[in-house]
Every structure is written in C-alpha cells, then in structure tokens.
Amino acid sequence: MAAKSLILVLLLLGTFAYLMLFERKILGFFQFRLGPNRTGPWGLLQPVADGVKALIKEDVIPAEADRLIYLLAPGISLFMALAAYAVIPVGPPVHIGRYTVPLSIADPGAGILVLLAFTSLGIYGVALGGWASQSKYALLGGLRASAQLISYEIAMAMNLLAVLVMAGSLRLSDIVAAQSPYPYALVQPLGFVIYLITASAEVARAPFDLPEAETELVAGYHTEYSGLRMAMFVMAEYVNLITQASLVTLLYLGGWAGPSWLPGVVWFLLKLGAVLFFFIWVRATVPRLRYDQLMALGWKVLLPLSVANLLAYAGWAALAG
Amino acid sequence: MAAPVERVPPEAGARAWKVARGLAKGFGTTLRILWQRKHTIQYPDRRRERSARFRGRHELRRYANGQEMCVGCELCQVACPANAITVYAAENDPRHPHSPGERYAFAYEIDMLRCIYCGLCEEACPTGALHLTQEYEMAAFSRDALVYGRRILVDREATEFTVPEVVYPPFEGRRPPEAPEAGRERAGVTAPAGEQEAQRALSRRQDAGSCVPEERRAVAS
Ligand code: SF4
Ligand code: SF4
User: Fold this and answer.
1) Is the terminal CB of chain A with fewer CB neighbours within 10 Å at N or C?
2) ipTM beyond 0.85?
3) What is the pTM of this model?
C-alpha cells in the first residue's frame, strides 16, 4: 500500500511536470510557435529547469500573514489533489503469479464520493491561502475562486448522479464495467459535454481560469505566494486536471476498455492523453469568460441542463427497471 | 409617447446554435494552425536579416590610414534630442594626430540608456564618422556599463567600413597668429591647448544641466 502510494505520488508529479511541458508545446503549436526547445533535446529537460528555478527562487512571506495557515495552504491544495487520485483505477487488476494487483490504491464502494470529498476539500487550500496572505487582492481572489469551484461542483455532481443512476454503483471499476458495449459519452452526449465544461471550470482552466485573473486581481488567491509554494499551487491545479481527465475517461469514455491487442492501461492512458489534449485545445481556442458570464453559465445554463439530464435518465431507469 | 422599442433577445435555441457554430469554427481554426509551419526563429542560432536602415549601436569610424574620422566638432551632441551624447574635444598633437582635423574627440560618451536610436547624430555628423551599426545585442548588468565610451565606440569596430583616403589635409600644427589664413580668425582658433578646451566644454555642459555624473566628468577633465 505504502509502496503503491509512493509510486503513485512520484508518477503523478512526473506526469504533472511533463504535462506542463506538453501543454506549453501544444499551445506553442497552436500559435505558430515551437514552444520550449532550448533545454535538452526537444526541450525535454525544461521541467527539470523549471523545478530548479522554483526551488531556488526567493520565497517571500508577507510580514502580516497568518504564518501557519499561509504555510499550510499550498500543502492542503496539493495533498487533496494527490489524495483524490488514490481511488482512481488506471486499468484492470493485473495478475502477477498468484497475486492480483489492482491498479489503484483503493477501489472503495463509494469511490466517487471519496473523490468528490477530496476535490472539494482542495478548495480549502485556495480559500485559506487567499485569506492568510492578509492581502485584499488575495482574499478577493480566494473568495471568487471558491465561489467558482463550488458553483460548478453542483452541476458536475448532477452529471455524476446521472452516470451513477445508469451504472447502478458508486464504485469506479463497476462504472467502467457498466459501459460495455457503449461508453457513456454515446449514451449521454449532453451529460458528457456538460461534464467536460464543468470539469474545466472545476480545475480553473481556460476559458474559466478566473481565479488567476491577472487583469483584475494581480494574480488571484496566490498573489502573495512565490517560489516553491506558488509551484505547489500550480502543481495542485495540474494534478486536479489529471484527476478530472482520468474521471472523464472512466465515466464517459469506457475507462480501460478497448480492443484486446493493447493492454487496458495503455487504452486508459491513450484516452487520458486525448482528453488532456482536448483541454489544451480548448485553452488555445476559447477566450476567457467574464466573471458574471461564468456564474450565469454555471447557474442558469449548466445546472438546469444537468438536472434535466439527470431526471431524464432517472425516469428512463425507473421505467426500464 | 412612442412605445419603447422592445429588444427581443434571440430565442435560446438559436443562440445556442450560434454559440456552437462559433465554437466549432474556432476549434477548426486552431486545429488547422497546429499542423502549419511554425514561425519561431531560433534566435541565438539563427538570426533574422535586419533591414539596411536598421539603427543599432553607434560606431566612430576610421579612415584607411587608421586615423579617426571624428573631428570632435560636437555637432552630434547638439543634434541629439535625448541628450545622450557627450563629446569633449581636444587639440591634436601635430606629431601623432588622432584625426586629420585640428581636434579630435578626447572623450566621447553615449549613454545607450537614453539613446532612442533616432539617428539624428549620424545625420548631423559632418565627416560621416558617426554611424549606427546593425549590432543590437547590448545587454549589460549595470547602468554604468551602458554608457559607452571611446573604448567601445572608437576602438571596437562593428563594421568593415573604411574610407580609402583622408579627405582633410593632414594637421601640421597651428598656424602662428601673425600669419592667419583667411577665414580662420575665429575665436576657436586661438583656444588654449586641448585640456583647457575640454575643461571649458565641461563647464558648458554643467551649466546646461548635463546628466553626466560627477565622477565621469572628472575623467574628461
Ligand atoms: S541616435 Fe538619436 S538619441 Fe541616439 S545618440 Fe544619436 S541623436 Fe542621440
Ligand atoms: S562624431 Fe561627427 S558630429 Fe560628433 S563630434 Fe565627431 S565629427 Fe562631430
């Protein structure tokens, strides 16, 4: 268990680093640029350079800050982001001799609930970070970031409910199993689209990257953070992105299901990569929303639509059986 | 009273359709760009050709015989709108003249931080000595290092420009006042030796509120 956790954390951090490079590269390609390519072949050492830079950067703690909470906040964010991944299975259990090793830290019966709990706890890092900085910019940034994350979590939960009603289980591996032969993206296209939108809002990605509103709030909730602590917030954001992309894969794209000429894990990773690419593509294409547009979209469009989606599938499920 | 014009918002379905179409078009555009040729110039390895009229760092050119073209006339200093140039002229030693004229730039400074690369100094220079080259890599770690003196402007050549022959007659010492040549009875001719001249120029600059800091003024005097 401990060994698996360690491997998972290291894998996630490595993925985070290279996801960032991947994103910078792809964003560059979308903008007629080559992206980072000076450090190592094809810029492959860029994450290392970035890491070293984050480590040796001057770390400033505001004099008036609530030190304990200020220092804790990035840790809370990162911890919750990493912990959420514990319940995500990345493939079918593998058989090594007599042993059967499930490819997740845990596959609890209430998997989805655990995940939701951890992702919503991550908001504490954001809100506390903004509060403890003793800066009005950071406070406002933290408040609006948490307002955004909470608003979109509701529409997201409604979508999840529709999936749960169809699958009849809270366990992620059961949900994957329930998706044969048709992945839920085909069964619930509307839910799939709404989930993609809410997921990108939930992880505060473009076009919903308002927590980092450089134009109005300097930098949002992490205005006063620098160096490694700032990097931890960014890390949490990207790990959350990986979590959400994995969730999209598991809930709507059939997880590790696929023709048997590739192992399940590879199918899972391929789908995950496609979803991540899609998120980057969105970032390169769609301009940022205004905050009131963001709220209007969340509460007036996505929430009613997702409730309608849920009711439709719940009614169908009730009639069918 | 006319009834207020009621703006009918487009129907929700029509709006959603419009948004969806717009999004699809945008996604198509970015995806097309993804495969197109990239325009990044790998800067230190590959450089873009600059236009012939590009104005970079200054250079004070020399004649083919090694003499400086600058005759210390200070016209560039006067022409500079940014007050970036400081010239202290001194008389040439007839035995080892720096320039073919009577005077040469004993101290010549351009504050590159003030320069706006307008090229007016180049235009003003009567001998064609001052030239703005194509060189633009001028980063430095201190502000002082960006005040270029003779060492960079005169002694480090950035272009291979040379004028084949000296256009001024060689300077062979001042004519004695008893036998003045026509048109040379100007106050400047009877000026004292180079150092005092520089000192006078310096005090002129001080009156004008020059920005050259104290320690660098001392260098020139
Ligand atoms: S280029 Fe213009 S600003 Fe620069 S030194 Fe010459 S005259 Fe002054
Ligand atoms: S550079 Fe030209 S204008 Fe300036 S002092 Fe020398 S000769 Fe005169």
Assistant:
1) C
2) no
3) 0.77
Q: Is the peptide bond before A47 cis (omega within 30 degrees of 0)?
A: no
How far apart CA A85 and CA A33 sit, in angstroms, is 33
Cβ of B38 and A33 within 8 Å?
yes
DSSP B7-50: --PPPHHHHHHHHHHHHHHHHHHHHHHHHSPP----TTTS-PPP
Give Cβ neighbours of residue B49 (< 8 Å, ≥ 6 apart).
none
Q: What is the dihedral of CA A275, A279, A284, A286, to 10 degrees?
A: 120
Residue-range definition of the domain harbouring residue A214:
61-320
Distance CA A212, CA A223 (A): 9
Per-residue confidence (pLDDT) for residue A193, from 0 to 100? 92
Q: Nearest-CA distance from B36 to chain A in Å?
A: 7
- Asked if residue A28 is part of any domain, the answer here is no
A17 lies in some domain: no
Residue A36 maps to a domain: no
Judging contacts by C-beta atoms under 8 Å, the chain A residues touching residue B42 are: 34, 37
Query: What's the gap in Å between A198 CA and the centre of ligand 2?
Result: 68
Total count of residues recorded for chain A: 321
Average pLDDT over residues A150-178: 89
Q: Quick check: A21 and A47 in contact, CB under 8 A?
A: yes
A6 assigned to some structural domain: no
A125 and A137 Cβ atoms separated by less than 8 Å: no
> Cβ of A262 under 8 Å from any chain B Cβ?
no
B197-215: string of b/e by CB count within 10 Å (b at 16+)? bbeebbeebeeeeeebeee
DSSP A1: -
Task: Say how many domains are in chain A.
Answer: 1
Whole-angstrom Cα distance, residue A186 to residue A183? 6
3-state DSSP assignment of residue B174: coil
